[in-house]
Each structure stands twice: as C-alpha cells, then as structure tokens.
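User: Can you predict the 3D structure for this chain?
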Amino acid sequence: MTTVGTIAIGARRRTLDDLVAQVLQPGFVARYRRMPSCVESSGHVSAPMLEISPPRSRYVRRWKRHARRCEQCRETFRYYGLSVK
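Assistant: Here is the predicted structure, written as structure tokens:
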C-alpha cells in the first residue's frame, strides 16, 4: 500500500528486512539519531544554546565538565557531535 506522499517523492515503502539491514550500516545512528529528551533546568545544559554555540565557546567549555558526570547532558553533547573529553 502506497500513499500519495510516497508516490510524489518517488520513494518506496521499505520492508522490515530492509530497515534492519540499514541499521547495520555504518553511520545509521548518526543520520537518524533522535533528539534526547531533556527538561530545561538550571542544572543541565540547554540544548538550544548548545546548538548555536561554537565548539570552543565559553558556554560549551563550562558545560563539558558537567557532561562528563551527567548522562543527560552527555547525550545532548553527543547529539550535537561534541566531545566531552
């Protein structure tokens, strides 16, 4: 069964076997990673601020130490491709 959106784009619906095969390819996680669920609070890094801040900014450096110890902040850093080391 195809939808109008699928026909207009020219893509085909994928079977479960096709999707599982894609999961095994390198780079799948980086391309289709979900934004980590986070609650804005003063004790954790702000995802919107981290997104617009340059990697060498004072904001990133300050929260990097915290992200080494905090799983929620570490996941946010990973989502934006920033190292916590």
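The helical segments are 4-9, 16-23, 28-31, 47-52, 58-69, 71-79. Residues 30 and 79 are 8 Å apart (CA to CA).
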